[in-house]
Design a protein that fits this description.
The complex is a heterodimer of chains A (about 475) and B (about 300). In chain A, α2 packs across α6 and α3 packs across α12. In chain A, the strands form 8 sheets. A 5-stranded mixed β-sheet of chain A has the order 5-26-25-22-21. A 4-stranded parallel β-sheet of chain A has the order 10-9-14-15, with helices on one face. The mean pLDDT of chain A is about 90. Chain A has a domain at about 350-415: Dna Ligase, domain 1. Chain A is built from 14 helices and 26 strands. Chain A has helices at about 30-40, 40-60, 85-110, 115-120, 125-130, 175-190, 195, 205-215, 240-250, 285-290, 305-310, 335-340, 360-365, 395-405, and strands spanning about 20, 25, 65, 70-75, 80-85, 150-155, 155-160, 165-170, 225-230, 250-255, 260, 265-270, 275, 280, 315, 350, 355, 370-375, 385, 410-415, 420-425, 430-435, 440-445, 445-450, 455-460, 470-480. Chain A is α+β, with helices and mostly antiparallel strands. Chain B is an all-alpha fold and about 300 residues long. Chain B has 2 domains: about 1-150, no CATH class; about 150-310, no CATH class. Helix content of chain B is about 75%, strand content about 0%. Chain B has 16 helices and no strands. The chains are: A alpha+beta (about 475), B mainly alpha (about 300).
Chain lengths: ~475, ~300
Amino acid sequence: MKATELFHKYPLAGNTWDEMYDEERVRSHYQNVFNSLSSIPADELSKKEELAKGLFMSQGITFTVYSSGEGIEKIFPFDIIPRIITASEWDFIERGIKQRLRALNLFLKDVYHQQFSLKDGIVPIDLIYSCPHYLREMQGVNVPHDIYVHIAGIDLIRDHDGTFYVLEDNLRTPSGVSYMIENREITKRIFPDLIPQNYVRPVTQYPNILYNNLMSLSPGQVSSPNVVLLTPGIYNSAYFEHTTLARLMGIELVEGRDLVVENHKVYMKTTAGLRQVDVIYRRVDDDFLDPLVFNPQSVLGVSGIMSAYRKGNVAIVNAVGNGVADDKAIYVYVPEMIRYYLNEEPILKNVPTYQLEKPDEREHVLKNINKMVVKKTNGSGGYGMLMGHAASEEEIDDYKKEILKAPREFIAQPVISLSNAPCYVNGKAQPRRIDLRPFALCGPNGIEIVPGGLTRVALKEGSLVVNSSQGGGSKDTWVLAK
Amino acid sequence: MLSRVADSLYWMSRYMERTDSILRMLKINYASSQDSPEDFSWQPVLRIFGSLDDDAVSDLDNNGRKVLQYMVLDRDNPNSVFNMVTIARENARGVQDNITTELWKCLNEFYHVVREERLKYALQFEDPVTVLDALIKECMIYFGVTDITMFRGEGLCFMNVGKYMERAIQSADILDVKLSNLSYDLDKPTDTAYWKYLLMSISGYSLYLKRYQSGFEARNVIDQVLFNVDFPRSVLYSLNQLTRYFERLKGEQNQEGFAKVQFMIGKLRSKVQYSNVQSVSRIGLHDYLTEITTEIDDIGSTLNKYYFAYS
């Protein structure tokens, strides 16, 4: 196969933003990569794809699927063609996310303290109390520096005209940042020199920024705080990420069974006895954190950790109870929050969202369900969604019944097409849908967003669902310096 | 260091030592089975390292290829290379932030190697020595990577404690297997090849030739495997190393546990240091070897109680 055929007959989808092509013309920020990739013979590209797979496998950047008692290592699919974001696009995204996070942080503090915004009718009060992630255990609890969201992974998508929209705010335990870091390392290996030639901004500083933020949260006067990362353990599909972050930050990776609470202080069990823990970056969900307070069945958490937290003897990252702010029904009110708390106009747009609890909106959605995506307000990972345009009559009828049973638990959004980016599929460049999850870190000195993020790809042709649990993959994400 | 981490490092290291040792033992036994099939039996190997009942052992006995399949790849044999590498890697996976990435990568790659479909075929139809050599090479990479990259801290001490405890047990066991073939009669005439293979399986052949300069004599072989302090697989050498790395764990904390384990190691080491082939023959070799392995197991339980208990 000849080299130039990679992008030959690239099928442009109608009414969809393509990251690389503006009609027939290659966008200027993709030109360099287009030229480089076009000069590589197709069988070389397939070898590079194999090399990438081999590198993920040998480094153990895998998750384990257990079937018939034996573990099988799987790779999160990686597409070799990078996704490129211009400096000006990034500037816009960065300002938009910072603004949104400032408002969301203020909202969380407000909800768990005086509740001004609820009293002023900015967010309906019953929506808060009916949210399963609102935790009354957090009411009146002070957290260090009033920061609730230390790490956010806000998902962005682009509509047909290229406008960025916020799809969801992930404020609990967003994952994927290790792929931002590792995908870049893989690109360095498979495309030598390509990154320096394109002035791509680095992403390696992420663990340092996070580490400094974690250190700054230490309660009390401790000269060298003991910071740990709490993982659910090796059976968790994101375990690779936990171990990578712990290693890159030089902090101890602990499991619930390594910790014990005594006299409202958290300790870890070491070969030299108990050692106090000051800051916990936890990757265990709220519900499993403390069997005495939340799910009593949990073996992943630590009994008594909430009492230590409430007394301020340990800092927990992200704060407990954040789910009330990234609930899909409360999402609707984020633009209002920005106006209310910051007196600014929102920079990033929300996807128009219908709340099925409201009778008129519900009626509208049910009538136009073929054009809608219906989601559970507390769902994630692409589970339990209804894609109206693709579902059968029967699926729609079943789903409608579910909605009518508990309308509070559903929202609907018009189908947003998501932008396309070229992906290497079967020896050719093919358009596939993508989103973008940049990772924002909030510390006492403000919000920092590492230039890059996780670009997720819907690898199935025509699919709009990018979640890894639904056959999605990822790309290296470049933010250009100029 | 977290107790769980120390525990995982200790077991990772023990399983890798055992893997290496079993692979070498298999290689030599296989070679020996090709030499003199009429006096060769796989039974001692299967008895010591396998978990089969007597009927299954006699079924396998004269089928070397099947024994190799069982010892290398069998999913139901807890001591198969497949299972040991999987466990070692699983332990490493849980403590990746406490070992170097190079070490993790090496174990992860070994884990993928023992999963290759081709291995089964090769072990059945091709030259098994090539297969075993390839696996032994993976072990040597592991030891090299550990030595070159691992930081000299508490973690490496626990790894070495595990490694030398396991090595002492393995050397004692391998000797026991061989001696049981002779019914522990040191004067029973044997083929030269018999001792040669034993020494080769524990890389002690060259040293033996230099040191003892005689033909193969059971007493000299026993002397080397148990008491020769220059021989890295001798029981005494292993106990000396065990002492050395355990002493490094001494600190302000956990003095009670340290004292207990130190006493047990010291006692065992003295016992071996102040024995020789004659005194051991009087006690009975099998009993003596069993005492050694039992005492090492006790040291393991005490370590577990004072250093590794976390759940």
